[in-house]
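Sorry to interrupt, but I need a hand with the structure work. Leave the record below and I will have a look:
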Amino acid sequence: MDESLVLKKCGYILGNTLGDGSYGKVKSAYSERLKTNVAVKIINRKKAAADFLEKFLPRELEIQATLSHSNIVKIFKIFETSDGKVFMVMELGVQGDLLEFVKSRGALPEDFARKLFRHLSAAIKYMHDQDIVHRDLKCENLLLDKDFNLKVSDFGFTRRIVYTETGKMELSKTFCGSAAYAAPEVLQGIPYNPKMYDIWSMGVILFVMVCGSMPYDDSNIKRMLRIQKEHRVDFPRSKHVPGECKDIIYKILHPDVKRRLDICSILEHHWLVKHGEASGRHHNRPSTSKAALSSKDDKKDSKTEADAPPAPAKEEEHAGPSSNRIDTDCVT
């Protein structure tokens, strides 16, 4: 059946294509019930690889339907048609994704970056507390709503942590995500702690927010890996990044997993909590400067580690509960 007819039957008026992938696409739509615009991810099982259908898609559908947090894209409905198409109706990031945002506006003001990173940290804390990992955190997968609140999206590589009978975490072996955001242990093909992989990706994202550029040049993976293993984090001299912000980035991007900050330590870091949520209210609109996202534009200033006293973290409020079931009323 035609996609627009399927969605119309369920109360959605199909709009423009927002993005295309290997096995499907994302389109905008208008929800007659919610009286608002939504995003619809449409996956075609007939075009998908067996590994995706057997492992990744079931995880995405099961896990994302159970998540309920103000900084995670909300799922309104999941249904499937008889011809093998899966429809995921979700919250729309009307301000687009963080990558395009930084590309068009340049490095974000410190308080605004802090607000967004606090949102990201709260979402990851919520997931990690439930032993759920994302494994594909990157600027493209972070959406901004109409009020410039950050929403984590795209759970295609998500999974639940598995523990042995003795309580030891089973390490992940699958290479997931993008090389530019991948931790050195992942790039080396070493079985890895997926929670700490998420943490590394968060460090890359924060660097992008405050510098307007990538911390590492992924056009040469071997060279990038060597720099990462040397614990080098070079900040552009043209950007003023406060010492406390450099400190949290430097401690997140630590090649030694045992010395890398975990999510609780991030939330307790002085840079993230010293001003509280109120400080971001005057920075709900980012800089209007124009700067393309590049890892090569500016001369770099090497960072040395500096200590910052921790402060107690302030917990984020969760969104109200959402449905954790797959709807069947629209299945055709």
About this structure: The chain has ten helices and eleven strands. The longest strand covers residues 12-20. Residues 278-283, 287-292, 294-329 have pLDDT under 50 and may be disordered.
